[in-house]
Fold Myosin motor domain-containing protein.
Amino acid sequence: MNTLLQRYRAQLPHTCSGPDLIVLQSPAPSAPSAGKVPWGCQDGLPAHVLGLAQRTYWALLSQRRDQSIVALGRSGAGKTTCCQQVLEHLVGMAGSVDGSVSVEKLQATFTILRAFGSVSTGHSRSATRFAMVMSLDFNATGRVTAAQLQTVLLENSHVARQPEGEGNFEIFSQMLAGLDLDLRTELNLHQTVESSAFGMGVWSKPEDKQRAAAAFAQLRSAMETLGISEVEQQAIWRVLAAIYHLGVAGACKVGRKQFMRFEWANRAAEVLGCDYEELNTATFKHHLRQIIQQMTAGPKRRGLKDEDTGSGLKMTGVECVEGMASGLYQELFAALVSLINRSFSSHHLSMASIMVVDSPGFQNPRHQGKDRAATFEELCRNYAHERLQLLFYHRTFVSTLERYKEEGVPVHFDLPESSPATTVAVVDQNPSQVPLPARGEGSEGAGGLFWVLDEEVRVEGSSDSVVLERLRATFEMKTARAKGKGTRQPLQCEVPHQLGQDPVRYDLMGWLHRAKPNLSALDAPQVLQQSKREELQKLFQTRAKLPPVCRAVAGLEGTSQQALHRSRVVRRAFASSLASVKRKAPCIQIKLQMDALISLVRRSRLHFIHCLIPTSVIGSKGGQGTPSPPQPCGDQGGADESPALDIPALRVQLAGSHILEALRLHRTGYAEHMGLAQFRRRFQVLDPPLLKKLKSTSEGIDERKAVEELLQTLDLEKKAVTVGHSQVSVHLRTSRPLYRNSDDIQFLSHPMPYHSGSPSSRL
């Protein structure tokens, strides 16, 4: 803790924690410079996100193996900015084969993603509402051949329903403020109203509108950089304008399910290139189409339809309009990802990839001083963060200790008592995987929250209270495994996130409606694909070729070998629970999207960036008068006084991330490990007689014998190096000087500078 605080006060927010990196959100601008991390160095790199990127790059070249960099932390801690810095540094350092991937294109990509995938909240001006994997493919010479963007967990419902204190996606305010007069007239946006149900087109200050107009001009420039044509841009504005018109049109809350304002619904149909009746049927009259399909289908198919749709909760008119808007936005976001991938595509052969993972951060209303319970969307974001924390737990502890055991390396270290698996099980535990006791009260349906919602939504007359009672019964039955507990408030429960260090209270009111497949959202792709406007048809027809089970994932297009492999991994993840996907169960699809993301990166070598928030963002009691939040990694303009450090919050973040336990294992165990042959080839230069002997031999080399002779010559400290069954493990105190000596001899033209900082950059 003292090291982190001293470095933070010295404007050094980055600290190495073993193989990973800790980044404290800095209130002062700290733009990276080439002098901080010299290009071409493999060792002695300073603690910085660019240093981690460079170590990952050299690991890819030396191991010929995929690498992944995963950012973890609270919402607003600066994960997206760190990921952007990593990607830009890798491309700038390695260079591109044919210029298809450049720093300018990456900057344009993040400009588009921030506009379409970020919202303004009480703690961040640009909070991410989707998860992404940005992959850079490299050839054998270390140059970038192609890139691919894949996105999951898009919070598309945010376009129609925003929590208190949060705005809509930034693109709507930018478009409504920046469109020229001709486009406004063409899109029927020459007249706007302030009563939009989706909260669009409202600016608290005139300068906010000017800032949004400037951001829109920057967005259009970014689209031109990525080769998005004027016609394609107009198709994008048409879909956004249609969503705005739907928000103004609204729906009748009583009586028939229909639009409340006919003229605005007609404007939405006009910009989408369809008739009003087509839009009205796709939005409200799914039950009529289902009846016709069931009557014309055979008996077997009819029974399957009944099982798929379920007889549970009925949809209101407002939910139908919200579903259509959400479905349109999801298709638009996926089309944008396809256009980005088109700009990065290449047919060059690649050797391995570096994948950078960014996801919405952990969020607790208490962090902003709010006394409300968390929402279903916040549960999904926190669940995604817990899955990534579980990935860190398995890589750091489980896999490492298993490798020590298999190699016969003596390391005395016990697994931490707490694990993120406990909290993950509360949310997504499959009932078929739970060993149940004898039949009795509370022995049925012992699944996680997602499975309970998926089951109850198909039960006629079920309610949110039934879901809560089943969860309470499950938690009481497995107290030691899932330490969830009910609260005295109705329809509320508490989930022990962050290893129980930062529990979150959730309100289950209306969650069954969220778990019901929204038929309007499912019909949105057909509205776009069957549009009478050619530019809309051309933009969205490519999505029609994808299998329906993968609709929730954007960016499955790709022509390179690496891109095709990643797409197959995603499809296999969804095929593992095909029945739930066919039934269009939203909760199970969230789990499967995280399964696909984890499957993409778990076989690569993982590197983690822990982004921590060292200061409190609470302005006053109850969250009133909350100041403008600091922007991650120096995005905030100059403030004269630094915010006060929040030591208890920093300790909670450290304790809830297993950072200290990981550091203890890194110091106790062996920091580096490699195969016998790889170790011999890497360090035989330190023993010239052995090197001469190996070059003169004509028979096969006994790698174990050669390594033992090499270690005798090196005369290292006892237990500094351990030879296992197939690998050599090197202790932390020996690895750095050993690597430096060998590199100094092998790369005399590129000496490895040793960077020392005060205070030390390493924990």
About this structure: DSSP finds 29 helices and 15 strands in the chain. The two ends are 9 Å apart (CA to CA). The longest strand covers residues 144-152. The longest helix spans residues 376-407.
